[in-house]
Amino acid sequence: MTALASIPDPSPSPRSRDARSVHRSVHEAGHTDVYTDGHSDGHSDDEGPPARLEDDELYMRFALAEAHEAAREDEVPIGAIIVGPGPDFEVIARAHNTPRGACDPTAHAEILAIRAATGRSGYQRLDGCTLYTTVEPCFMCAGALVHARLHRVVFGTRDPKFGGTVSLGTVLATEGLNHRVLQTEGVLAEEARTLLRGFFRAKRK
Ligand SMILES: [Zn+2]
Fold first, then answer.
1. 185: pLDDT confidence band, cut at 50, 70 and 90?
2. Is 67 within 8 Å of 79 (Cβ atoms)?
3. 32 pLDDT tier (thresholds 50, 70, 90)
């Protein structure tokens, strides 16, 4: 039983459109900094809520709880959730990696969360929604984020072996795409990294 397992239901959401956002950059040069006063320096086809670090950390804890669930199932511990648009900003989907159990190499947390969210809404796009994932999306998932028209993706730690949005490629910044997904990285990164390292360390024993 971990502290994460006792996280209460997220409703009602802590987010509020009239709350001022905090100043903090978690990006290196060239990446979107969305922690500004209610606007971002990137752009997307639809304006989402102002990004606030404290909100991002709260939501990321739900994604981390999913990552812990993946570890319990002997899957690579990556979790993702999707937060719907305002005014409710509720968690509309949760998922964790299941490629091994599902015998499906595409069963990444982000893909499963997108499918759950669209299945619930009955609509193929997720305008105004934010996806939180504990690890940098791979190329496949980054493409799916664009197809789903997500407003923003928030991730924890980078993935030097598969990361497609910062580490090995910058899919979300590709010129010519007809939709731009905002990106925030480094939210509770150490916790996501520690979980991954512990999982792979145990595998090597
Ligand atoms: Zn992926």
1. very high
2. yes
3. low
Name the pTM for this structure.
0.81
Report the separation in Å between the CA atom of 4 and the middle of ligand 1, taken as the mean of its atom positions: 23
Between 189-204 and 53-72, two packed helices, what is the crossing angle to 10 degrees? 10
186 touches 162 (CB < 8 A): no
DSSP H/E element including 40: none
Distance (angstroms) between ligand 1 centre and the Cα of 62 equals 18
The string of pLDDT tens digits covering residues 102-124 is 999 999 999 999 999 999 888 88
With tokens 């390292």, the residue in question is 197
Q: Tell me how far the alpha carbon of residue 141 lies from the centroid of ligand 1, in angstroms.
A: 4
Please give the Cα distance from 155 to 16 (Å, whole number): 21
